[in-house]
Amino acid sequence: MKMFFKIQVEINSSEEAEIIIAELSENNYYAFEEENNLLNAYVTEEDFDEEKLKKILPFDTIFEKHVIEEENWNQQWESGLQPVVINNFVGIRPSFHEAINNVTHDLIITPKMSFGTGHHSTTHLMIELMEMIDFTNKTVVDFGTGTGVLAILAEKCGASKMIGVDYDEWSIKNALENVEANNCQKIILKQQSNLSGIDVADIVLANINLNIIKNEALSISSITKTGSLLLVSGFLNSDEAEMKSIFEEKGFVKIKSKEQGDWAVILFEKS
Fold this sequence. Notes:
Blueprint lengths: L2 E8 L3 H12 L5 E5 L2 E7 L5 H7 L6 E7 H9 L5 E3 L3 E4 L11 E4 L12 H10 L8 E5 L5 H8 L4 E6 L2 H13 L5 E5 L11 E5 L2 H6 L1 H6 L6 E8 L3 H9 L3 E9 L2 E8 L1
Parallel strand pairs: 6-7, 8-9, 8-11, 9-10, 11-12
Antiparallel strand pairs: 1-3, 1-4, 2-3, 5-6, 12-14, 13-14
């Protein structure tokens, strides 16, 4: 049976929590919750490295490790999971909540161990800028698809083909469940760590983390063409200049950026 750890970290401020989340998300931690002065971070047993965790956390930070069996994960996660509404554009809710009215798109996303419920700033920012994009009859690649929420939204916005890519088997299984729950018919899911073999796209969505985006920038560029859009998040606003430079070197022009808390998103167009 697959095992997970919940790491409870004592934090001094939301700003400190954001920095820790950014670091942990680059080390395969899946999900995060803040409650009072605690940050709960979730990671699989195989991805947990206590020595690396100690190096990431500020000196003398107190933390506790709790074991969660796979069968108990849903109960742990769902207990605090509430719907999210973004600009009357999208409502995101788990399957056990009632439909959200007065939004253009009511999405059913039950996350299990995958990121992508709209609660995290990066998902929220991606969706805000997706509202600006015309997806009609477009081919879309969602790199780091997680729950599949962005690919699902792209189909609801009129895209003709979506390819969701994620290295994690658990994410792909969860994304498939969410694709079916939203009656999507045009989404293909691929379990792989890169974009090898992926066709050229009109729009690329990449909500991952700084290191993966940097390492895969060339492959991201390789599946785009003149006029393709790239929407990228998963990095801190202090890294925005570096991200802009990386993709400008590959022929992209920044159209718009936005920040929420310590996080940023950038929309590029390939020139």
